[in-house]
Write a structure and sequence with these properties.
Layout: H1 4-12, H2 27-33, H3 86-90, H4 119-125, H5 135-151, E1 166-173, H6 187-191, E2 195-202, H7 204-211, H8 220-223, E3 229-232, E4 241-246, E5 267-270, H9 281-291, E6 295-301, H10 302-325, H11 330-337, E7 344-346, E8 364-374, H12 394-411
């Protein structure tokens, strides 16, 4: 509850940032005010509606649920042959749009010359009035920026130069509504000068979309192992590139997939992850620990993030006997059992405003809190603690069994 003033202050900096009597933020009212509330036909703002935060929302007995718009497909615009533009995607007044295509002399300043640390500094850098509701969507790419730069430290706006560029391979797990706003991730190319970013999206929604792809559609490129979207920032912004791929062959990320063999990403990110709510996260957790692959997530609430942090050693402890008998090598076992801190932090690029859950008083915000699951060697303590790993809870045993079956089905 100590974070309530922070969450409310972040929202109140915007003229549309009204706090309701129950402490929540009625985001649909803001969308309606700007005429961008709806499903198909609303550009980047397209959402299925309904009360489920995710496609496979864990059931809550007794909770009132509103169904999604029937037949809505995340990323439906990628089933056509034309990508949205600044105008057709944002559907806002020109002065309120954080443009990706600039008229001469209107580009933002080179990001390495400014400190972009929160929404206020980002709006100033992009020369946008706070009246713009852009933050209601751009919390997705800017949260990825926060995870890569300030949580995992795998890149940074001041790290690279025209003489020394960086190739950055990122796996983005669990993409759903993000499929409706693919071009907005171009913000990463503006924020990270002299960087060549390859980002691959995974998830149930990605798999479903690619399987529906028809000839000449944008999504068909995924079946041809081509990027569905590319962007290059202007020379004055660092000439960075972004290539976005969709992995549609399988619903879930799994280290045994042929696609992933010998292709270790520089970082894995998972927005609003729910690490202990969805069984398929367990293989990601174990693989990243064993391979020491940088991995970070966000969660809605600080309390749930803490519960997941406390569950991670139990998940590892439960898996250790099986992994040892399967012939895991010494280095991987050491990585699994080394001490890790799992730091949790308030995300300055969270979506403004408390979620519309009137019964919840604790701060509960999309992309509200970050957690580093696996960091690089400089971030982690280097002594083994396998003897101190707590025994697993019975429900985690069942969760891991489900995970294994999920992955076997995925590979089949």
């Amino acid at each position: 509850m100590e974070k309530v003033p922070q969450v409310q202050a972040l929202l109140k900096q915007f003229p549309w940032g009204r706090i309701e009597k129950d402490g929540t933020f009625a985001e649909p009212l803001v969308r309606a005010y700007y005429n961008v509330l709806g499903a198909e036909g609303f550009g980047y703002w397209s959402i299925p509606g309904g009360s489920n935060a995710h496609l496979q929302q864990p059931s809550t007995s007794g909770a009132l649920r509103v169904d999604d718009t029937k037949g809505f497909e995340h990323g439906y615009m990628l089933l056509s042959d034309k990508m949205l533009t600044d105008e057709t995607g944002w559907k806002l007044e020109k002065r309120l749009i954080p443009r990706l295509v600039f008229e001469l002399g209107t580009e933002p300043e080179l990001a390495s010359k400014v400190d972009i640390v929160d929404w206020d500094s980002w709006y100033k850098w992009r020369n946008l009035p706070k009246e713009s509701p852009a933050a209601l969507l751009l919390h997705y790419p800017l949260t990825v920026y926060q995870l890569l730069v300030n949580v995992l430290h795998v890149t940074g706006p001041k790290r690279n130069s025209s003489e020394s560029r960086q190739a950055l391979n990122v796996h983005y797990i669990g993409a759903e509504v993000e499929l409706n706003m693919i071009p907005l991730f171009s913000e990463l190319a503006l924020l990270l000068p002299h960087t060549d970013i390859k980002m691959t999206l995974f998830g149930i929604a990605v798999h479903s979309l690619v399987n529906k792809a028809k000839k000449n559609s944008i999504a068909m490129k995924a079946k041809q192992n081509e990027p569905v979207y590319t962007y290059t920032s202007s020379t004055s912004c660092g000439a960075s590139t972004l290539s976005i791929f969709l992995h549609g062959d399988h619903e879930n990320w799994d280290p045994r997939l042929p696609f992933l063999l010998g292709s270790k990403p520089d970082a894995i990110v998972g927005p609003n992850a729910g690490l202990t709510s969805y069984p398929t996260w367990q293989f990601v957790i174990l693989c990243c620990h064993a391979d020491n692959t940088p991995f970070a997530v966000t969660e809605y609430a600080e309390q749930s993030t803490e519960l997941q942090r406390d569950a991670l050693p139990q998940i590892i402890a439960h898996a250790l006997p099986r992994l040892h008998s399967a012939g895991m090598n010494g280095e991987e076992l050491h990585n699994l059992t080394r001490a890790r801190e799992y730091p949790i932090a308030f995300n300055p690029f969270q979506r403004p405003g408390q979620r519309n859950l009137g019964s919840v008083r604790l701060p509960n915000v999309p992309n509200g809190f970050t957690m580093r699951v696996v960091g690089n060697d400089e971030q982690e303590i280097i002594h083994p603690v396998s003897a101190g790993v707590p025994a697993p809870a019975s429900d985690l045993s069942e969760l891991l069994q489900k995970t294994e079956q999920f992955s076997l089905n995925c590979l089949d």
